[in-house]
Write a structure and sequence with these properties.
four-stranded mixed sheet, alpha+beta, single chain, 3 helices, about 100 residues
């Protein structure tokens, strides 16, 4: 494994984020961030189901005040304040092959 992986692991461990929920967010067409949240904030986001978003051609828009953590393998942020979570017209995309339809029904 890449040595950098262990550095990021230690950063997350030191900040108490290893077991915090997170979401992958598309910032631009080719840019992603991983946003770590407290459980209460994550509960506001997890109500949206991937399959429903895909079928209804909607996407979730998240506005948050964040703290920069690191930049490997993607930008890692911590949500200091979840300002708004809303649904809007748009396309929801799977980022990686980890998405399985049965997981999001």
């Amino acid at each position: 494994m890449d040595r950098r992986f262990f550095e990021v692991y230690n950063i997350l461990k030191d900040k108490g984020l290893l077991y915090k929920p997170f979401v992958d967010i598309r910032v631009k067409e080719d840019s992603m961030v991983k946003l770590y949240l407290d459980s209460a904030d994550y509960d506001r986001i997890k109500i949206f189901k991937w399959r429903e978003l895909l079928n209804e051609e909607k996407k979730v828009v998240i506005k948050a005040k964040t703290e920069y953590i690191d930049n490997f393998p993607v930008t890692l942020l911590y949500c200091k304040e979840l300002v708004d979570v809303s649904l809007t017209e748009g396309k929801t995309y799977p980022q990686r092959s980890k998405f399985k339809i049965e997981d999001y029904n």
